[in-house]
Amino acid sequence: MAYIDFITTIHKKTKRDYLGRVNEYPKAEAAKLAKKFDWDYWDGDRKVGYGGFNYDGRWKTVAKELASHYKLKNGDKVLDVGCGKAFLLYDLMQEVPGLEVCGVDISKYAIEHAKEEVRSSLICTGAHELPFSDHSFDLVISINTLHNLYCYELDKALREMERVGKQKYLVVESYRNEEEKANLLYWQLTCECFYTPGEWEWWFQQTHYSGDYSFIYFE
For strand 212-216 and strand 168-173, is the pairing parallel, antiparallel, or unpaired? Predict the structure, then answer.
């Protein structure tokens, strides 16, 4: 298990007005809409989600780094837990010809509007109940998903990733100080798990998660 950061560069490209986020629209109402993970969250107003989640190639660099680090090759199998519209899976397929990909997400809307080239490989299910056999994937990834689970679901999801993947990599939101905690609370719409790095590492030990990981901070 190692801390490996493939995500921060992309994360920092977005400029965030934390106070504006909580003042421009009732936060509770925004969260209610966002947690449906439907049109409002993916393609509706920015106040309640992504404000239009469209393919723009931003994940290509992450796909390249993942493929290189985990030595992905033709015939390998990759699972994305919380794949959304599967843009990262699509970019992985382009980076590694012959790669077999699969994605799971609880959002029917996201799957229905995923990249057409990947859509048939996506399944609507939760991260805590993966319908796959043990060690059936060469790499399992989960980017910005597991912090949306309640603790009893998170426990199962981490164990499921460990069970089905030979190699694993996840990214979750975290905070190192009160300022980052406040910014996270201001910005987030769907999070249920608010943990420091030490607490996340406790979860990994608790669930015997042996994969790699990194954190996103709202500085």
Answer: parallel
Please give the Cα distance from 162 to 48 (Å, whole number). 32
Average pLDDT over the chain reads 97
Tokens of 131: 């319908």
176-196 as b/e, with b when 16 or more CB fall inside 10 Å? eeeebbebbebbbbbbebebe
Collapsing DSSP to helix, strand or coil, 75 comes out as coil
Dihedral of alpha carbons 41, 57, 88, 199, sign: negative
Query: Which positions ≥6 away from 133 have C-beta within 8 Å?
Result: 164
Q: Which domains does the chain have, with CATH numbers?
A: 8-216 (3.40.50.150)
**Helix/strand/coil percentages in the chain, nearest 5:** 40, 15, 40
pTM of the complete model:
0.96
Instruction: Show Cβ contacts of residue 135 under 8 Å, excluding neighbours closer than 6 positions.
Output: 163, 164, 165, 166
